[in-house]
Every structure is written in C-alpha cells, then in structure tokens.
TrEMBL record:
<dbReference type="InterPro" id="IPR036514">
    <property type="entry name" value="SGNH_hydro_sf"/>
</dbReference>
<dbReference type="InterPro" id="IPR035669">
    <property type="entry name" value="SGNH_plant_lipase-like"/>
</dbReference>
<dbReference type="InterPro" id="IPR050592">
    <property type="entry name" value="GDSL_lipolytic_enzyme"/>
</dbReference>
<dbReference type="GO" id="GO:0016788">
    <property type="term" value="F:hydrolase activity, acting on ester bonds"/>
</dbReference>
<dbReference type="InterPro" id="IPR001087">
    <property type="entry name" value="GDSL"/>
</dbReference>
<feature type="signal peptide">
    <location>
        <begin position="1"/>
        <end position="28"/>
    </location>
</feature>
<dbReference type="Pfam" id="PF00657">
    <property type="entry name" value="Lipase_GDSL"/>
</dbReference>
<keyword id="KW-0732">Signal</keyword>
<comment type="similarity">
    <text>Belongs to the 'GDSL' lipolytic enzyme family.</text>
</comment>
<protein>
    <recommendedName>
        <fullName>GDSL esterase/lipase</fullName>
    </recommendedName>
</protein>
Length: 369
C-alpha cells in the first residue's frame, strides 16, 4: 500500500500553514521581548570593569590572604552564598559591590585582588582591593588590615598586570572608563575616634576629625585620578549609631545613638560638597555620591516595609558583639537571615545589601541624567 502523500510547505496545506503562522507570531513576540528595554536599562552606563577600595563593606576576600584575625573565611559567614562558601565577605552572602557589578552587566561577582587564582578575565573586568578593618586614617588599623592609602600599592601591581595582558593603550582605556567604588570611613569613627575617649582630648573636635578624614579621601581620589581613573563613586557614612555593636557598647537599650547619627549626617553633607569641589578641580573626572544612610536608616525604622523583623541585633550569635573572629561556628546563626537587617553586629545581611544596592543604582542613574 502506497504511503500517504506528504504535505508540501505552502498555505494550501492547512496544518503547515497554521504552524507557520504560529512560528511567525512566536518569533515576532520574542524579537519584541528582546528589543524591549525599560528606560532604566537604556540609561545604564557601560563600564568595562569595576574596582573597589575601602573596608569590609567591599572586601570580597583580601583579608583571607594577610595575617589578620579579622576575617570572614569561616562559617557561618557565606551561609547564603552560592554553595554556602565562606569567601571572606563579611556577610551571609553577596555584597553591594557584587550586586552593582551584576546590575551594570560587568560580572556577577567581584573577586579580591589578593586571590592567587585570579584569571586574566578577572583582571580585565575588575577586582576589589579593600580590606576589612581599614580606614582613611592609618591609626584606625585596629585589625592589621590594609589601610586605604596602602591599597594603592596593590593597585599599582594591578596596573602592571593589566598592561601585560592588553598593552598600555588598552589598559589605560579600561582604567579611564572603569567604575571605581570607594567605601570606607565608618571604622575611622566607630573604632577609632569614638572608641578611645582618652584620645579625644589630644585630638581634634569631631568636626575637625571629619575634615581630616575627608582630606585623606581627597588625597585618595586624586591619587586614583593621577593613576588614570576618571569615573568614581564615593560612599557616605551609614547611620553609625544604629549598628548593633555601637548600641551595645554605649548601653543604649536598643536605641540608636543619636549623636553618632547626627555626626554621620554632617559628615555626609560635607562629603557631597567636597565631591562637587573635586569635580571642578579635576578635569574629566565624574564622581557620584552614594547615600547609604537614608536607605539603611529607613530599613531600621520601618522594617515591615522591607520584610524585616530584627533591626537591633545581627543574625550571628547574640548579634550584639559578634563580628569577624567572634562570629564563628560556635555562634548559632538565626533561622532566616532575610528577616534581619544585620548579619553580624556590624555588617548588613545580603537582603539589606540588596535594598541598599537598589537605592544606589537609582541615585546613580539620577546623577547621570
């Protein structure tokens, strides 16, 4: 018996015609979906790399490779990181610097420069030079960290490696267009100025010390500018008086320490003025101020708006003093870190960092528009 005649591909064949029409519709929908971009996506700037300087808020693991006890390369740190790996990030998961890199389509994670297993692609798309415990003031180095000015030595090494990979012209182009994030200053106050009351009489007033710290910040920005960087983001101070460790040490009965929050707000106002001045003084530079005070303060005082329940203690241990070596395998972590603003007594959770990142991105796009 002869097989049935095959249906040729033309519209006279109802089944194939219907399939062809459906295929065309699906392709049209898919093309439209791919081509459709939100206004924010269209505004997103393009950076070839992201570079980070500062303290534990942007240290993705450099302290793992220096002789210091202030490390986060042990559980329960990293319990919500992919594969639950304690990478050296001072949180339960990713940091804002990772989320910024992902949001800007640079890469999903920012590796530490001191990682001996860095791949060439890691260098091309950026690394973190930050070190937990550091500050602008060298006297802040309470944890044997890499001070911010010393992080420039590692940046010089990075420049050399980058030049060897792609040549001088291309390396200069990468540095000129890379986003440089500078996040530090909290340690200078929380673990230096406020921590040693005996020194207060030998030192400047809080206003004078703010000016001193910001002079160091200016020097750091100018050094990076002279080394080829022109696109920067400088992060302000958080509400330092609301850190669990601050409230614990000041016996504030779970209330934020108002005077330290007031100092942070004054510092941030000065910082914004300094940034405007530097943009005028340094031709071609573009500096964005990142306000983390407002989003973090709002999370602490309006937790239900963000799905948080605990705001005055961290998820690790008692959440009142534990951080670094004190947050360890003997410290029982909370059952659900997404309900906590703070992971340990100092650092936010990944969930809190996600909200901070969204706020920074909104500020960033507004600054560029």
């Amino acid at each position: 018996m002869a097989p049935p005649p095959r249906c040729r591909i033309h519209l006279s064949c109802p089944v194939i015609g219907l399939l062809t029409l459906l295929l065309q519709c699906c392709l049209t929908i898919e093309v439209n979906r791919v081509n459709a971009t939100t206004p924010q996506q269209e505004l997103l700037p393009s950076f070839p790399a992201i570079l980070a300087f500062g303290d534990s808020t942007v240290d993705t693991g450099n302290n793992n490779h220096i002789p210091t006890v202030f490390r986060a390369d042990h559980p329960p740190y990293g319990q919500d990181f992919p594969s639950s790996i304690p990478t050296g990030r001072f949180s339960n998961g990713k940091l804002t610097i990772d989320m910024l890199a992902s949001a800007l389509n640079i890469k999903p994670l920012v590796p530490p420069f001191l990682d001996p297993n860095l791949a060439p692609q890691d260098l091309l798309t950026g690394v973190s030079f930050a070190s937990g415990g550091s500050g602008y003031d060298r006297a802040t180095d309470f944890a044997v960290s890499i001070p911010v000015d010393a992080q420039l030595h590692n940046f010089n090494k990075y420049k050399t490696k980058l030049c060897e990979l792609v040549g001088e012209d291309e390396s200069q182009k990468i540095l000129k267009n890379a986003l440089v994030v500078i996040s530090t200053g909290s340690n200078d106050f929380a673990f230096n100025y406020y921590a040693y009351p005996v020194k207060l009489f030998q030192r400047l007033s809080v206003g004078g010390y703010q000016d001193f710290v910001q002079s160091k910040m200016q020097s750091h920005v100018k050094s990076l500018y002279e080394m080829g960087c022109q696109k920067m983001m400088v992060v302000g101070l958080p509400p330092m008086g609301c850190l669990p460790i601050t409230m614990t040490l000041r016996l504030s009965d779970a209330e934020c320490v108002k005077e330290q929050n007031d100092d942070a707000r004054v510092y941030n106002k000065k910082l914004k003025r300094q940034i405007l001045n530097m943009e005028k003084q340094l031709p071609g530079i573009k500096i964005s101020y990142a306000d983390i005070y407002k989003p973090l303060f709002d999370m602490i005082h309006n937790p239900s708006k963000y799905g948080f329940e605990a705001t005055n203690a961290g998820c690790c241990g008692t959440g009142l003093l534990e951080a670094g070596p004190l947050c360890n395998m003997l410290s029982a972590a909370c059952a659900d870190s997404s309900k906590y603003v703070f992971w340990d007594a100092i650092h936010p959770t990944e969930a809190a960092y996600a909200y901070i990142t969204r706020s920074i991105m909104a500020q960033f796009l507004a600054h560029l528009s």
